[in-house]
Structure formats: structure tokens, C-alpha cells
Amino acid sequence: MIALPDLRILPLNALIPHERTDPRRVAPLVERLRAEAVLRNPPIVAPLDAAHRQFVVLDGANRTAALLALGVPHVLAQVVDYRAVTLSVWHHVIARCDAPQVLRTLSALEGLEIVAGDLTSARAALARREALAYMFIEDGEGKAQCLILLGGHNLRTRTDLLNQVVDAYEGCARVQRTIAETLAEARAAFPEAALLVVFPRYERDEIVDLVRNEVRLPAGITRHVLPLRALRLNYPMDVLRSDLPLARKQAHLSEWIHERLIQRQVRTYEEPTVLFDE
């Protein structure tokens, strides 16, 4: 028996993202959804309440925003138990930017304090949640300087300030996700890296608390690892876009999944899998 993820048709307005969207990614997604007419990969969501009236989007904020832009009333989502999800963190490696200008912009942010440190003290400050983040920037002598970013007095103000930090380089730089914690490590994969920003790992309760208070994390720093993830569903958009009631759409989804099981089109990979067509 194949283990299947919990796939449901949900009202799009019941989904609440935990992170900000990236307009540079949303626009191409809108065009791709319109052209392909299928939803390839469902957003990953977890219930926010016992009655399952609202759901937090753990992965797929940009896809959700693209569907909203298309005026789609419902979405096919994978529903997970948040307690079964492993939380990790992405860091940002930044290339093709004026690093000194980014630093000047950060220095002008109200409430942000930037202090020089070393990797050990930076990691310790981040672990104690005394730091918003730490960053590596190349100094005038070609050496990587470690800077610790401090500020905010509670979860909400720290998150607001962290969004401003990300805004300082989001608009003018090429940003990639990485698990590297030093600039040297980041340059092994991204030789043009000029900056590396290392973030703290947010806890589930912190994320849920922020969502309920309508505060969003910066895009691309939380990493949710699932025990089972549905990919390449290629579910028809015309069903999601139709005026059929929710119950009829859910029935269609159940029949659609059953048909693919009969045709042996569903496969579960137990080993780590690397995809080259995302």
C-alpha cells in the first residue's frame, strides 16, 4: 500500500503565509500557471486551529500569491501536522551587489546595531537569540569581516527589523539560499558571493504566533522538511478555477487520485531524491 500525503482542496482565503512573498518570483509563476494550466506542486500547509478553518502556509507562499493574482477561489494543498515537520533555516548568499552600499544602508536603519565579532561569538549570540543575524562582508583588504546585527526587544520588533535588513539587499542583489555559515563555505558554491547573512532558526510556536499577529518573516529563511511530500501532481487549474462547490471539487480530487493509483502513476521514493527540472 502506497503511503499518500493528505491532499485537500481548500479555500484560498483560508491560507495565511508565514513569510513575505517575492514579487520577482510571483509574476513568472502567474504566467506559468496561466500557460501550463496545471498546478505542479501543491503548497504545504498546517492547520492553525482545531476546526481547520485557517491554515498557515509553510512552503508555497509565492504559488499562493500567484493563484490569488489569477483570481482562483480554491487551491490544492498538502496538509501536514506541524508537529511532524522538521524546522531548519536557510541563509542568504548575496552576489552582484555593492557590499559597502548595503552596509551603509544597514547602518542607517533605526534600531539596528552592528558590532564586529568573530564566528564563535556570532554563533553564540544567534543561539541565545541576542542577535537578529550575523553577516560576513569582504573588507578593503579582501578579508571576510564578521558583523553581528542586534536590535528589537521582542519577537515582533525583531522580526520587523529583520525584514528591513533583508530589504536592504533584496532590491539590488542576486540572493540565493544556502546552508553555509561562512563566506568561504558560501563561495564554494557561489564564487561571486559578496555577502553572507546567517539567520536564527525560528520555532514552530514563534511562527504561529507571528502569523496570528499578522507579522511575516522574510522570504526564504525558514526551511520545512517533511516526512512525505507530494510533487508533480499537475492538477488541472480549470477545476480549481471553476464555480463548483468545494465538496464537488474535493470529490473530483479523490477520483483523480484514485485513477492515478489504478494506472500506477503514483510513486514514492524512500531515498533522498535530486530533481533537475524544478
State the gist of this model.
With 278 residues, the protein is of the alpha+beta class. It has helices at 23-36, 61-69, 99-107, 119-127, 155-170, 183-189, 204-212, 237-241, 246-262, and strands at 6-11, 15-17, 38-39, 44-47, 55-59, 74-79, 86-89, 91-95, 113-117, 133-138, 144-150, 174-178, 193-198, 222-225, 235-236.
What are the defining features of this structure?
alpha+beta; Conserved hypothetical protein from pyrococcus furiosus pfu- 392566-001, ParB domain; Conserved hypothetical protein from pyrococcus furiosus pfu- 392566-001, domain 2; 5-stranded mixed beta sheet; 15 strands; elongated
Question: Can you offer a commentary on this structure?
Answer:
The chain is an alpha+beta fold and 278 residues long. It folds into two domains: 6-85 and 226-262, Alpha-Beta Complex (Conserved hypothetical protein from pyrococcus furiosus pfu- 392566-001, ParB domain), CATH 3.90.1530; 90-201, Conserved hypothetical protein from pyrococcus furiosus pfu- 392566-001, domain 2, CATH 3.30.1760. 34% of the residues lie in helices and 25% in strands. The chain has nine helices and 15 strands. The strands form four sheets. A six-stranded antiparallel sheet has the order 9-11-10-13-8-12, sandwiched between helices. Strands 1-6-4-5-2 form a five-stranded mixed sheet. Strand 10 (133-138) and strand 11 form a beta hairpin. Helix 1 (23-36) packs across helix 2 and helix 3 (99-107) runs antiparallel to helix 5 (155-170). The model has no long low-confidence stretch (mean pLDDT 92).
